[in-house]
From TrEMBL:
<dbReference type="InterPro" id="IPR029039">
    <property type="entry name" value="Flavoprotein-like_sf"/>
</dbReference>
<feature type="domain" description="NADPH-dependent FMN reductase-like">
    <location>
        <begin position="5"/>
        <end position="144"/>
    </location>
</feature>
<dbReference type="InterPro" id="IPR050712">
    <property type="entry name" value="NAD(P)H-dep_reductase"/>
</dbReference>
<dbReference type="Pfam" id="PF03358">
    <property type="entry name" value="FMN_red"/>
</dbReference>
<protein>
    <submittedName>
        <fullName>NAD(P)H-dependent oxidoreductase</fullName>
    </submittedName>
</protein>
<comment type="similarity">
    <text>Belongs to the SsuE family. Isf subfamily.</text>
</comment>
<dbReference type="InterPro" id="IPR005025">
    <property type="entry name" value="FMN_Rdtase-like_dom"/>
</dbReference>
């Protein structure tokens, strides 16, 4: 059996992104657990605002191919106004069942404040609509400026939770998902 391939998607465009630090840490833990990894840093791609009439705009074919090739996908986002970022939403709009159905997905949110949970709930709903198997464990980095310094997570508890997400992305990469959930069967237009 081949080693599970974990793709970490960074939904932040900031140069000094705490989200990137956290996804890189999760990917490091995935490698240490036996997986192969790839960082998909959205700031490195030309992804125009999604237009259903031009699904191959910019670098969209490369982004969707990289996500499709993952056995597990880690979605990392900064929290903006209680939800996930526009760059991540835009990248997900280019994707559909071909990229996500029956895939294992791990969720990570980074917040300047203390409550990043709603962004994780919103991403979990999107993943259900794409018929993913979302890892029950999710990682949150609240008060990021106090938990990340010099490109590393400095809070021991957060460090452990983020690493655990990477480990579980490998551990559950080939899980047999349940039958499609209601959200995915009612996701009209996801694959048109």
């Amino acid at each position: 059996m081949s080693r599970p391939h974990v793709v970490g998607v960074v939904g932040s465009l900031r140069e000094a992104s705490y989200t990137r630090v956290a996804i890189e840490h999760a990917l490091e833990a995935a490698r240490e657990t036996g997986g192969t990894t790839e960082l998909l840093d959205l700031r490195e791609y030309d992804l125009p605002v999604f237009d259903a009439d031009d699904r191959d705009a910019g670098d969209a074919p490369d982004v969707t191919r990289r996500i499709r090739e993952g056995d597990s996908i880690l979605l990392g986002t900064p929290v903006y106004h209680g939800s996930y970022s526009a760059p991540l939403k835009n990248a997900l709009d280019y994707c559909g069942f071909d990229e996500f159905e029956n895939k294992t997905v791990g969720l990570l949110a980074v917040a300047g404040g203390g409550f990043p949970i709603t962004a994780l709930e919103h991403l979990r709903s999107v993943c259900r609509a794409l018929n993913c198997w979302v890892i029950p464990h999710q990682a949150a980095v609240p008060r990021a400026r106090n938990a990340v310094a010099d490109g590393a997570i400095t809070d021991e508890g957060i460090d452990e939770r983020v690493a655990r997400l990477g480990e579980e992305a490998v551990q559950y990469a080939n899980i047999e998902p349940d039958p499609p959930c209601l959200e995915s069967t009612e996701n009209v237009g996801a694959d048109d």
